[in-house]
């Protein structure tokens, strides 16, 4: 089978991708900053990165950071070209070309590097994972009042389903930019927040606050959503029920359309 390198292979998404590739019989190398034998900081590159990609046929690039993503991608692409890698699969975010959010701009820049790399490439954009939405809501609910950006909706997707799709893409031929992948429901942030609070057993007042700026307008206008590609099946309630237990999470507000 194929030798595949998974960057960010110990993270929320990368770990699942690596597990599934191994289960399918592939020779999988996991690259992260602290995991041997392929402990590499992609932002620095160097001999350790060259050793990690040597003999690799496909790379699934899941590593991501708020800072340094473009340099990390440039280093990875340079090493991949030198090693004769035939296929680079990159996971991006729905709306990186429509919402002028700093992190999204960086992801879009990485997409451009991948497209212009000279390698065979595939780019999949997905909506936010359930895990990341919960992480955000946990942070916001530390205060007695949970403040939300008014008028914003979200379409969270099950990370395991994104991992399955990446595995499918990695096993195939380079496909360029493939169709986006979104979760099954487009919901208001308030609906999602109230569902989270009930599942987590937290009591908070929820207040919607109008914000300002181009990034906020992009989110409010739904630039990060893909209702026409709602191919995920796992709901936020199902995720919360697994995470917190009990039936209360399943009793959320139900589906609402964009």
TrEMBL record:
Identify the residues that the record assigns to the NAD(P)-binding domain, covering every copy.
8-131
Signal sequence coordinates: none
Pfam families registered for this protein in UniProt: NAD_binding_10 (PF13460)
Q: What SUPFAM superfamilies does UniProt report for this protein, alphabetically?
A: NAD(P)-binding Rossmann-fold domains (SSF51735)
Instruction: Specify the superkingdom.
Output: Bacteria
- Which InterPro entries does the entry link to? ComplexI_NDUFA9_subunit, NAD(P)-bd_dom, NAD(P)-bd_dom_sf
Q: Which GO terms describe its molecular function?
A: protein-containing complex binding
Which protein are we looking at?
NAD(P)-binding domain-containing protein
């Amino acid at each position: 089978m194929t030798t595949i390198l998974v960057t960010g292979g110990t993270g929320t998404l990368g770990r699942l991708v690596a597990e599934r590739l191994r289960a399918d019989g592939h020779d999988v190398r996991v690259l992260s900053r602290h995991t041997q034998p392929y402990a590499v900081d992609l932002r620095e590159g160097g001999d350790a990165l060259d050793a990690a990609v040597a003999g690799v046929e496909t790379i699934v690039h899941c590593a991501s950071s708020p800072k340094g993503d473009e340099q990390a991608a440039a280093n990875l692409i340079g090493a991949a070209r030198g090693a004769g890698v035939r296929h680079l699969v990159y996971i991006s975010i729905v709306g990186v070309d429509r919402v002028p959010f700093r992190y999204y701009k960086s992801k879009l820049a990485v997409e451009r590097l991948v497209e212009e790399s000279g390698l065979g490439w595939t780019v999949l954009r997905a909506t936010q994972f359930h895990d990341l939405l919960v992480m955000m809501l946990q942070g916001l609910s530390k205060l007695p009042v949970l403040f939300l950006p008014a008028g914003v909706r979200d379409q969270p997707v099950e990370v395991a389903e994104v991992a399955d799709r990446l595995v499918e893409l990695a096993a195939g031929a380079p496909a360029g930019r493939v169709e986006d992948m979104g979760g099954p429901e487009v919901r208001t942030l308030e609906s999602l927040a109230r569902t989270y609070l009930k599942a987590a057993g937290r009591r908070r007042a929820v207040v919607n606050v109008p914000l300002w700026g181009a990034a906020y307008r992009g989110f409010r206008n739904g630039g990060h959503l893909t209702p026409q590609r709602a191919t995920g099946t796992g709901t936020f309630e199902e995720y919360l029920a697994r995470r917190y237990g009990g039936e209360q999470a399943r009793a959320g507000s139900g589906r609402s359309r964009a």
